[in-house]
């Protein structure tokens, strides 16, 4: 079995070594949201793709962007999602931008197809010498293989695909060397490079990415270049990427219960404490507020508790007990005052807390706290 990167098996000899064959990948600014598409037999459902992508406003915006970014390109090869979509792209390029764009499908007569391809390649026979070379050519699942046009210096993906092989076959039409070509621009409006990774790093996938996992490529928000996730700064414009937040397995096995209703108590050292005022979501403006206390008990691991400072009855009684264990002065009735006292350092801070988890219940709770000494400063000495 060949364990080299999937793309390496398709690269023609010399492409990797020669800097003149550099590929430039950019994500289209005007793209559809493909997150809701379903997959059948390993590919997006074609009818859903058609309904989503063949939108007049989307096609018009994408075509305008294509025209803007390909002003210095000699041969632009476009892959549309369907015949209707391809026809609409050709119409918009002609009507809105005055650009002639050839169109090839599986139903195109052989003679017409040969003429269009000859003009696009720039090697039209004598009978067609009166025709200008064709800069734009749109196709639907026809020119993925068996089509050789080395002068192609821009490939436009106006369709999504779940197949890394199909993606490489499409984009690979622009990877052939040509003496007049410095690089190949790839415009991806289908989210394909973000889905599969940079073209020269594509590997066959044995299973889909987990929901929420990091894609193999990322887009620069400044210049829209698509690059491998490992870059800290965009190699095209230098824009810094925000640090990635990846999930990793824990260094130790979880102590959480396995069966529903199982109780687990774990003691943690408290590394930091944050106090703030809390009001229930969607509560009225005059609803009572709490003092929220967040304890940092691990790297990006926090446990919260809510002290009902402005409540009455049992909730207020519990707040009074909590406060008396930490402060020499009585519990205030106002959340702002409680926050000021806490931030002034007049509350004893817990050194350790015990967190109880019950399997099947949504929230954990603090059942025990080991407190430090109560500060000796009186309330009137506080700096507020």
Automatic annotation (TrEMBL):
SUPFAM superfamilies cross-referenced by the UniProt entry: P-loop containing nucleoside triphosphate hydrolases (SSF52540)
GO cellular component terms, semicolon-separated: cytosol
Domain of life: Bacteria
Gene3D superfamilies on file: P-loop containing nucleotide triphosphate hydrolases
Domain spans labelled Helicase C-terminal: 68-217
Pfam families: Helicase_C
SMART domains listed in its UniProt record: HELICc
Name recorded for this polypeptide: Helicase C-terminal domain-containing protein
Organism: Novipirellula herctigrandis
């Amino acid at each position: 079995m060949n364990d080299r990167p999937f793309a390496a098996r398709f690269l023609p000899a010399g492409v990797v070594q020669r800097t003149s064959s550099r590929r430039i990948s950019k994500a289209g600014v005007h793209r559809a949201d493909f997150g809701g598409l379903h997959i059948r037999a390993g590919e997006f459902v074609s009818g859903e793709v058609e309904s989503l992508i063949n939108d007049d406003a989307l096609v018009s915006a994408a075509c305008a962007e294509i025209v803007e970014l390909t002003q210095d390109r000699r041969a632009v090869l476009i892959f549309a999602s369907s015949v209707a979509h391809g026809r609409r792209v050709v119409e918009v390029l002609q009507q809105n931008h005055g650009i002639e764009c050839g169109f090839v499908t599986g139903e195109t007569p052989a003679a017409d197809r040969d003429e269009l391809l000859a003009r696009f390649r720039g090697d039209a026979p004598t009978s067609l010498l009166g025709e200008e070379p064709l800069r734009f050519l749109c196709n639907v699942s026809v020119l993925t293989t068996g089509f050789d046009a080395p002068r192609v210096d821009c490939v436009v993906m106006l369709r999504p695909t779940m197949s890394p092989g199909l993606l490489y076959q499409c984009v690979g039409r622009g990877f052939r060397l040509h003496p007049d070509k410095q690089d190949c621009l790839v415009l991806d409006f289908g989210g394909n490079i973000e889905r599969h990774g940079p073209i020269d790093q594509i590997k066959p996938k044995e299973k889909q990415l987990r929901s929420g996992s990091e894609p193999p490529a990322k887009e620069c928000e400044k210049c829209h270049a698509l690059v491998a996730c490992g870059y800290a700064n965009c190699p095209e414009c230098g824009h810094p990427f925000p640090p990635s937040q990846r999930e990793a397995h824990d260094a130790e096995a979880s102590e959480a219960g396995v069966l529903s209703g199982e109780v687990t108590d774990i003691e943690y050292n408290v590394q930091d404490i944050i106090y703030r005022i809390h009001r229930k979501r969607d509560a009225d403006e005059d609803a009572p507020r709490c003092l929220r206390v967040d304890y940092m008990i691990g790297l990006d691991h926090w446990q919260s508790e809510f002290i009902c400072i402005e409540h009455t009855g049992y909730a207020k009684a519990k707040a009074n007990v909590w406060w008396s264990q930490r402060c020499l002065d009585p519990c205030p009735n106002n959340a702002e005052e409680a926050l000021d006292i806490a931030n002034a350092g007049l509350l004893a801070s817990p050194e350790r807390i015990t967190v109880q988890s019950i399997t099947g219940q949504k929230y954990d709770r603090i059942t025990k706290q080991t407190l430090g000494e109560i500060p000796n400063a009186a309330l009137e000495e506080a700096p507020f």
